[in-house]
Write a structure and sequence with these properties.
The chain is an alpha/beta fold. The protein has helices at residues 3-12, 35-39, 42-53, 72-82, 121-132, 173-176; strands at 16-22, 28-33, 63-67, 85-92, 95-98, 109-117, 136-145, 156-161, 166-167, 181-182, 188-189. The protein has one domain (3-176): Rossmann fold (3-Layer(aba) Sandwich). A six-stranded mixed beta sheet has the order 5-4-3-6-7-8, sandwiched between helices. Helix 3 packs across helix 4 (72-82). Bound molecules: zinc ion.
């Protein structure tokens, strides 16, 4: 799946949002990719998972591991494409951990997946979860890469590399126009 096809899928499913958004980083942006809105459609999720899995078919991954919640559906579909299992790590007491009886064995070859990579922080942390359990991480993948020159130390693949314009609230042209700012996933807030 090409970058253009991936973005078209986001657009078609209403997952490419245009407006005035406050990102988790605090910066403002006029575009937001809400992966949950594309992943709610199983056929789209399956196609994205297959495209992410393809570059890793020769790596012999036995486990696909994702950080909850955003990566769970992606991991499930990548695992389906590879014919292996998908598990997830959850945040507890500040750190990501394997719970629910999920186990990574000493010989496990692990592929780490996410929906969106921005700073690479949660992917790096998930890689550490796999290694701490004795697994060998063969690569990492995310549908969207919003990062710049993110170094993970393992082969990394994304379907879309985007460098969306972001603004400091003080100099945001949309704020200057008086457009209400929205935190994605919530209702508009008055600022
Ligand atoms: Zn703004």
């Amino acid at each position: 799946m090409t970058e253009k096809e991936t973005l078209a899928l986001y657009e078609k499913t209403g997952a490419l949002l245009r407006g005035h958004f406050r990102l988790t980083s605090g910066l403002h942006s006029d575009v937001y990719l809400q992966s949950a809105l594309v992943l709610q459609h199983p056929d789209a999720a399956e196609a994205l998972g297959r495209a992410l899995a393809d570059p890793f078919r020769a790596e012999g991954a036995r486990t696909v591991l994702a950080p909850a919640i955003g990566g769970i559906l992606v991991a499930h579909e990548v695992a389906r494409a590879l014919g292996v299992r998908a598990i997830f790590a959850e945040r507890q007491d500040g750190g990501l951990r394997l719970r629910r009886g999920f186990i990574i064995g000493e010989t496990d070859r692990v592929l780490v997946v996410e929906d969106v990579l921005t700073t690479g922080g949660s992917t790096r942390e998930t890689i550490q979860v796999a290694r701490a359990a004795g697994g060998r991480v063969v690569g990492a993948a995310s549908i969207v890469n919003r990062g710049r020159d993110v170094e993970l130390g393992v082969p990394y693949v994304s379907l879309v590399q985007i460098d969306l314009p972001t603004y400091e609230p003080d100099t945001c042209p949309l704020c200057a126009q008086g457009m209400p700012v929205v935190k994605p996933g919530s209702r508009p807030v008055a600022t």
